[in-house]
Every structure is written in structure tokens, then in C-alpha cells.
Amino acid sequence: MEHLTILYRGPLASCDYDCPYCPFAKRRDSTEQLHADRAALERFTEWVSGQSFRISVLFTPWGEGLVRSWYRRALVELSHLPHVERVAIQTNLSHRVSWTSEADLARLALWATYHPGQVPYDRFLGKCQELAGRGVRFSVGIVGQPDHLDAARRLRADLPSGTYLWVNAAEGRAYDDAEADQWTAIDPLFPVSRRPHPSRGLACRTGDTVVSVDGDGTVRRCHFVPAVLGNLYDGSALDALAPRPCPLDVCDCHIGYVHLEPLGLYDTFAGGVLERIPVLFS
């Protein structure tokens, strides 16, 4: 084993936002659920700490992780491990960002999403400007809903020029060429997100050098294929790693299709695959 990329998603499902396009909006975890999530994350962090091969981690919680102290602590701790190449998290930036001063900024990165209607524009932009001032590596994104277009244009104009603003195609939405051109003017890589990618039988890094791990340590090739490879903590999953083609007809999420080898996105995002920062903005 030379290098393993892990997409970790524990049981946390609570979020402080109420986005109409998200099924987990305003969901609340019980105290018991939060305790279980914390214990699962601490177990995962301890496992990563004990390995000798190179590891990169992207936290992809259903809810908002950075409002929880244990996620901030895990990011800081993992960023200081010499065998961890990158540790990143998807976040809405609703929490303060001063905690990043404790991390090794050579390894930490944030994948931030702006949700118009959920947070005042100036507050979100201020968080981005503070991150840039602190030297934190981050990307910013928005969902390509028609009513988000003006906000996206404003954000692109106001963000530091070196900050990548990505646009996710709205789930189930078909974009005509005129619409797609508007979004591509904001994000030159929007054409990659515009349509689902046919994937059945294609070579994919998931299940080989990239895996998905849940709070119990159950390992799957990615978040979108339910078949279990094994468990992280008993070693069975690592023994099962091997190249394997994608079993699904299509892949329509960036954290999935970025690993499809024929798309060549590891070249597009070289050095920034987990935090979604293309070479153009590195």
C-alpha cells in the first residue's frame, strides 16, 4: 500500500441549514447520536494515526461537521501527521474559522458551499476572505439553480481571484446550451458537471486506491455503490482492494466521477482532487 484516499462519512446527519434541495436540511441528531458520531470519528482518527502508508482524507458528512468540536479537532490532528498528505471537509462555513490557525496549512483544505437564502451574503464572503487571509487552501461552490445565478456572478466577482468557484449541476435538471454557457462563464469546468457520466465498465480508482468508510468502519468502493468490501478495523477491507470497473450505469456526483480514470480529472485537479481545486487555480 503506497497511498489510500478515504472518503469518511460517519453517522452525523444534523445540519443548521434548510436548503430545499437537500433531504437532510434542518435535521437534528439526538445526544446519543452525537456521542456515537464523536466516538466513531475518534476511532477513525486513531486508526489513521496508526498507519505507516500515505493517506488522504475527505470528510463528507450528511450534516455540517465544523459546528462540532470533534471534527475541528480531527482535522487539526490529522493535518499534523507526516503520512497524511491532505485532510479536507465539505462545509457550509457557518462556524468560525479561527480554529484553522492550529492546523498544518500545508495539509488542510476546505470544500465550502454557498447556499443563498441560508446565510447573509456578506457573512459568507467574509468567511472566505478570512480563510484567504489566513492562508487556508479552499474552494467555494454553489448549486446551479436558476435563482442562484445572480448570487454566483456576484460571488465570482467578489472572491479573491485565485479562489476557484465551482458550480454543481442541480440534481435532475437538464441545461440547454444557453443556460450552460451562463454557468460556464462562472465555472469553466461546469461542462464536467452538466450531465451524468456514463460509467458502467469504466476503470475507476474507487475500490483500489480510493474507498468510502462509514462510522462502523464498513468500507465500500464509494458512497454510491452499496456492496461492502470489508471493514477498515479488522484489515479485511485493505486485503480486498483491487482495480475494478464501475458497476453503475452513470455517475453524477463530483466525489464519484472525479475518480473515473477515462475522464482524466486527476490531471485537471492535480494536487487538489479532494478539495476540488483545479491546477488552473493552484
From TrEMBL:
SUPFAM superfamilies xrefs: Radical SAM enzymes (SSF102114)
Organism lineage string: Bacteria, Bacillati, Actinomycetota, Actinomycetes, Streptosporangiales
Protein name as catalogued: Radical SAM protein
Top-rank taxon, per record: Bacteria
